[in-house]
Amino acid sequence: MEQTKLLLLFVRNPELGKVKTRLAATVGPEVALEVYIHLLQHTRQVTQQLPVDKLVYYAEKIAHNDNWPDDIYQKALQPEGDLGEKMNAAFENAFASGYTSVVIIGSDCQQLTQEIIQQAFAALETHDVVIGPALDGGYYLLGMKKLHLPFFRNKQWSTEHVFPDTLKDTRALHLTYTLLPILSDVDKAEDFDFSELGQE
Questions:
Q1: Residue-wise pLDDT tens digits, 140-186
Q2: Residue 92 pLDDT exceeds 60
Q3: Contact, 179 vs 131, CB < 8 A?
C-alpha cells in the first residue's frame, strides 16, 4: 500500500427520490435509484483493488456495512458548501494529512475502469495535474499533487463550462497536465446501458 496516494470518492446515499433526478424525470425515481446503485457497485469494482488509500465522502450520512467495505474504504461526510467548496476542502484535508498524490472521482461514470484510475496516478508522477474530461463538458476525474484553489472557484458547476474553465486555470497557473480519455457521465437515459439491469 502506497500511503502517499489517496483516491477520493464523492457519492450520494442511495435513497429513493434523491439520486439521478435528471434521469428520474424520464425513467422514474425507482429505476433511477436502481441505476445509481448499479453505478455505485461499478465504482466499487473498479476501485477496491487499487493499491492506494481510498476515502468515500458521503453526501448525506456516513453508512457502514454498505457497498463500501469498512476495511477497504475510509469514510467521511462531505463538507458544507457547493461542489467546488466540497472538493476544495476534501483535497485540502488530504494534503494536510500528508498525501502527495490525490485523485477525486464521482460515482456517475459507467465507462470508468481501474486502468484509467491507475493512469491518473501514474500521470501525477510526471505532471502537476491530471483531468478526465466528460462528454458533457465537466470532468469525471481530477488529480493533483498540491492544492490549486482556482480549480474550485468561479465555476458554473454541472455545466459544460467546468472542464474548459479548469483547463484555462491549469494553463494560467503554468502547470503541466495530462488528459485522460473522454468518458460519459450518466445523467440522462441515453447515457446508460440498461441491458446491464436486464432492461433493454
A1: 999 999 999 999 999 999 999 999 999 999 999 999 999 999 999 99
A2: yes
A3: yes
Enumerate the domain spans of the chain.
2-191
How many residues are present in the chain? 200
Mean pLDDT of 42-69: 96
Please give the Cα distance from 44 to 174 (Å, whole number): 34
Of 54, 50, 59, the C-alpha closest to 15 is 59
Prediction pTM value: 0.95
d(CA 14, CA 146): 32
CATH number belonging to domain 2-191 = 3.90.550.10
- Please give the full DSSP string across 148-176, using - where no structure is assigned: -GGGGSS--TTSTTHHHHHHHHHHHTT--
